[in-house]
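Structure catalogue
Derive tokens from sequence
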Amino acid sequence: MTDPDTHIRQLRGQSNDAIAARDAERVAAFMAPDIRVDVAGGPVLRGREASRAAFAEQFADRAFGGYVREAEQIVVREPPVSATERGRWTGRWQTSTGVHEQRGQYTAEWRFSEMGWLIAQEAYRSGE
């Protein structure tokens, strides 16, 4: 069995791959049904469906180049039922003058359930 830290890092990579593939259903599959997402400079999304719809809307925008989240630290609480992930994120959009990047830091709370590890909450902040 993979240790929780390694497993969560693998799931984050798969989530990044789903964003790169513009697959809103697969992105949402990593989320708990009651997820809360605090979007950098934007709204608070409540629930898996709201997050799926927000990704679907972004994926429809041809200028959207995707997001990449890179975990810097994962703290697992024993027994492994929850974990906190901290890291950096980068978003990219194509503009008339080239690629625009927005970046910042994020925190994610993961919960372990019968469905495995799912993201229960994410908070994104802009800036370095």
